[in-house]
Amino acid sequence: MRKTLNFMGWVAAAAMPVATLAADATGFRGDAARSGHYTAPGAPELHGLRWKFRTGGAVQSSPAVRDGIVYVGSNDGRLYALDAGSGGERWRLQTQGRVASSPAVADGRVYVLSYDGRLHAADAATGKGLWSFATGGERRFAHANLHGAEPAAELMPDPFDFFLSSPVVVDGVVFFGSGDGHVYAVDADSGALRWKFTADGVVHASPAVVDGTLYVGDFSSRLYAIDTATGRERWRFQAGTDPKTGNQQGFQASPVVVDGVVYVGCRDSKFYALDAATGRERWSYSNKGSWVIGSAVVDRGRVYFATSDTGLLHALDAATGALLQTIENRRWPMFSSPAIAGDTLYLGTHEGYLRAIRLPAFVPAWAFETDGHRANGAALTDTKGQPDYAAAYREPFYDAVVVGLYKLLDVGAVLSSPAIAGDTIYFGSSDGNVYAVH
């Protein structure tokens, strides 16, 4: 999002050496460092739909895959376990709120955060609830005159704050953030609190954990490095803030840590490379007002990330931040995080597609269309192939903004980040489906 845009532009936002490869798709972005790398072969060529599973709500959660089971949350308040080969339902766990977090699987258990304000732990094989941990309650980032919407004096929850923090499990401890403004560490076996860290804002980014340090940002635009054993702060980095409208601030993206560098995008429209030991800025890249919501992926000396309203997929030099290449997505925002398997990058778009990019050539390979786009894409796409914001948004009043946003999501937007196991790509869509393509 860009504060220099008019109101219809505002709604457009709604977002070195090779990284260590993730052996399993057992949590958000595959591993504790949130690398987005998978050792699976993936699908360099699209053969088609393997299966789809219909939930009762939009699927913003990103799947986890372990031992032939796909675990994924839905806005219908359920965590689902699906057969990875057929898409058949194994079990479901009912919570009391939207499951907009991505599950983590470890040691026979699956963990996920719900808008009911609880971290839920269930038996990964049966779905039997084992325990739940209550936070101080979930809430979205809120600001007066948010993004310039009316009435200017009203405190408004951000409708673009789609995701909850996704837990990560390391050495028997579950780490996650919360809208109550804390980062938590709880015992993976019992759910007992180990420690909690007080941040300065809503924490909906998903923490990365590397070598005893947890990295995560909040909506006050602070990125923290926290000792995983004690919960003590090692350092903090302050990115840009926007006290007038709250538009150009907040870490909604999750960091990725590669070879001593933290790579992370911010809603202040910059993408940062920070020294993992000190928090010192190595370089930053300006996106000229456009948010970076999805996490990045680093591969063969390049860092790849996508923008929101400008709809760009960038490739930067990971060492210097110099722009190398860009792929345009006709101004359709991208909140999904890219994943790499082999020589292919996969990324979801608000347009209702999963797109595959061939590396290192950095050229489109194929695209898979969701049911939502097939049904509603034409009505919400203008003559240039761009989002038809005029068809969705009638006025810059907050209520109309929320209605317009959800109307645009009817194109089957892919906010979920792809997970890769074998030759199959798993992801969710706002049309309520979980897809498996190969």
Structure described in brief:
By secondary structure, the protein is mostly beta strands. Helices cover 6% and strands 38% of the residues. It has helices at residues 7-10, 371-376, 389-392, 398-408, and strands at residues 37-38, 49-54, 64-66, 69-73, 78-83, 89-94, 104-106, 109-113, 118-123, 129-134, 142-144, 155-157, 168-170, 173-177, 182-187, 193-198, 208-210, 213-217, 222-227, 233-238, 256-258, 261-265, 270-275, 281-286, 297-299, 302-306, 312-317, 323-328, 339-341, 344-348, 353-358, 363-369, 419-421, 424-428, 433-437.
Give a verbal description of the structure.
The structure is a single chain. This protein has 438 residues and is mainly beta. It has a single domain, classed as YVTN repeat-like/Quinoprotein amine dehydrogenase (Methylamine Dehydrogenase, Chain H, 7 Propeller). 6% of the residues lie in helices and 38% in strands. The strands form nine sheets. It has a five-stranded mixed sheet. The protein has a four-stranded antiparallel sheet with strand order 2-35-34-33, with no helix packed on it. Strand 31 and strand 32 (363-369) form a beta hairpin. The two termini are 33 Å apart. The model is unreliable at 1-23 (pLDDT under 50).
Low-confidence stretches: 1-23
What would the CATH topology be? Methylamine Dehydrogenase, Chain H
The total number of structural domains is: 1
Q: What would the principal axes of the Cα set say about the shape?
A: globular
Count of DSSP strands: 35
| Global structural class | mainly beta
Instruction: Tell me the span between the first and last alpha carbons.
Output: 33 Å
CATH superfamily membership, which one?
A: YVTN repeat-like/Quinoprotein amine dehydrogenase
At the first level of CATH, the class is Mainly Beta
Q: Strand percentage, roughly?
A: 35-45%
